[in-house]
Amino acid sequence: MKNLFAFNNSNKLINISEVDKLQKEKYYCCNCNNELIARKGKIKAHHFSHKKQLDCNYETYLHKLGKLKFYQEYTNSLNLKKPFLLQYKTERICNSCSKIDALNLTCKISEKLEYFDLTERFDKISIEKKHNGFIADILLESSQNDDKIFIEFAVTHKCEKEKIESGIRIIEINLSEDNDLYFLSRKKIQLDEKNVDFYNFKTNREIKPFRKNDFCKKPHKAYVVYNSKKSVFLKDVVISKIIDGINNRDYLYYKIIEPEDEYDYQGDTFISLTKEASDLGIDVRNCFACRFSAINNRYDQVYPLWCKKHRAEIPNSNDGVYCENFWRVE
After folding, report:
1. For 23, what's the count of Cα atoms within 13 Å in the CB-facing half-sphere?
2. I need a labelling partner for 26 at 20 to 30 A (CA). Which of 70, 227, 256, 328 fits?
3. How far apart are CA 34 and CA 28, in angstroms?
4. Non-local CB neighbours of 285 within 8 Å, separated by 6+ positions
């Protein structure tokens, strides 16, 4: 075993990098409590090794080290009244357009990452304390309320299913080597830590008019039927343009497509949206809403649409606007 951490004479957990070889000090294993030797030579990586060959398990050492390291860093923060930060995510939803007549549009915008000082709420810390039938590796508690967080360390076994399904908030730190604990020295746990999993934490949600809709540059998709009875699919249109069309009464019908949805604006989606508008009683004169239109199955077809009334290909589905024989599908 080549440990990077050990207890010094003051029973403080230290890293091999903190050892001064000029000082004659004894070091002890935090797992088996036996004496260690600080190896700080010029060839091999610096480490602590057991003075005598003993049956000390590295996985057990890692699990115990995780608990001790977290306890020491968090206790220092409490005693010195310095923050121990936990990053959290806030989902932001802009509702600037939610009250516009018939638009009722809300948009997700970029998430916001912020930090919360755990010591402000959780002023008590315990190692291997029982709560609700479960034993937490580290239990953070509040003296003001019943709020609690479990800190778990996974070396060979992940957090059990029953503990996760209990609804208790859990931060699980996965360990394969000593270096996996270095981030704790920053007294900051970030959401993107590669060896950290979060269970039962809720994402905050903030809903308010983040952006003025007149200046919003976020692209939207929209299906529009103009007063001319032509229908189009607007692929990338800013909301202010749609609002201008609404205010100017340019549309017989419009539908904003959810930003996260994928739509084929030239194929099946356009057809289904056209038929949907027609079914709603909108006077959309698009050939896809006419009972004489059909898929063009000619072997030498140029256009995909065929008119059974005129026995000809349809170059543009909006040609139905000019057709005297247009007959809307009921």
Report:
1. 8
2. 70
3. 5
4. 229, 230, 318, 320, 321, 323, 326
